[in-house]
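Tokens help. Consider this.
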Amino acid sequence: MRFAPVLAVLITALALYFSRAVLDQILTADGPVRVALLPAWPALAGFALMSALGLLWLDRRTVPRRTASAARPPLGSLVLPLFGLGLLLVPYLPVLPDRLPALQMLAGPVRAVIWLVIGFQLIWVLWQSRLVRADWLSRRNVAQMTTAVGLGAALLAGTAAWRLTGGVLYPAGDEPHYLIIAQSLWRDGDLKIENNHKQRDYQEYFANDLAPHYLTRGADLEIYSIHPIGMPVLIAPLYAAGGYRAVVFAFVMMAGLAAALMWTVVLRATHAAGAATFGVAAVAATSPFLFNAFAVYPEIPAALVVTAAFTLIAISNAPGLRRWVFIGLAAAALPWLSTKYAPMSAVLVMAAFGRAFIPRAPGALVKAALVAVPYGLSLAAWFYFFYAIWGIPLPQAPYGALVQTSPRYLVFGAPGLLFDQEYGLLPYAPVYILALTGLWAMWREGGESRRRAVEVVLIFAALLGTVGAFRIWWGGSASPGRPIVSGLLLLALPVATAFREAPTGSARRAAQHLLLWTSVGIAGI
């Protein structure tokens, strides 16, 4: 550790220097040759001076203040994260990057991820050493922290929306088709979309030609969209008030509200604000949830509904019977948002029944009935909707003879949604690995924690099993993990549990931070 500070200064200076460089390849008769365009050499001296000044500042911060103790953390241990910046030097080494060309990717956008990860790892080390503090956090109550989490998640999603919407990326895929249903509801008061397409109403938010999404005409021979109507009904007044931008704003706020609600759930389950913040950040600040937070798909409204239902089922101890009515209403809303949510809604109802009957308490039958009645009535209306439009009381009626789902697709779909390099969850957010270890920790803890773990697994499995059985399991033109976004916030609970179980200052805790900030960095690029 004696020379660690000096080496850290040198590595940091070189990392800054090479981060300003450009690496390319040229083809010669002997094969590809690396070419580096480097900054002027005086820049290296300037970066070395900056790094040395940073080290001096850190050294002064370690001097004990207002205490009789002479103990101070060793400087060498504080700068250890900076050695990770050595990865940025690898693409410019001789021979090795030529033998392993994949190493040259470290000179591209990936270097921003490395800087982000190392920066937050350094902040974490300084935090653990009490050199960086935020005493004001301890003076905030739960309501203020919940508001801060919700606004933070909304601000993050809003920033991404501001950067990405209004171009070729958003709205795209099925988004214009949901929007045109909302336009038809607002302007025509019906679900018949043929005239809206002929009038090119979609040009208010979509520049290209847009053909109706339908596979079979309705019983009245009119064209109705194959897409579910729940979300268009929700956004029709929003579109009427402010167009596409108003819809995006509403979705961003729903994402923030869902994140804030889940933060309170995790806080009450783990009794650790830091763990709750880590768990929610693992979801709200990473690619799968973040890039769907402003996409006009049913995922974010469904995520809010699922989070609210889970809160009422597994966390709430509110007296009275209204809790059970709201559970039934929340579960009833899901099939209207998308047919793929119907099995998940049934599992939520079964989880509510389990809470009502196990352990058995007075009024269990009444509670179960208050859940079942609104849910059953809504299901009856849902089936009747298909009968009224297509003449068949089944949710597959809009698809005609086309078979969209099959158990044989599940063999590829479920693993693909988790591991596929283009559409999967884990390649874009490896922090979700902690959900598995967290579920195991919740199971070992037993009692209420074990019960919540089982509920999370069953609810998420119902969603994964349904969307994984679709022929187009990845959801067509979409960001990674979109079909399972509605259930991702539930995984914040096991992720937070895994974080809470890791000893403070341990290598396991450091690895968890590495997974989180790597996932956040991937979203950034």
Remarks:
- Residues 4-62+72-133 form one domain.
- The chain has two domains: 4-62+72-133, 254-524.
- Residues 230-270 form the longest helix (41 residues).
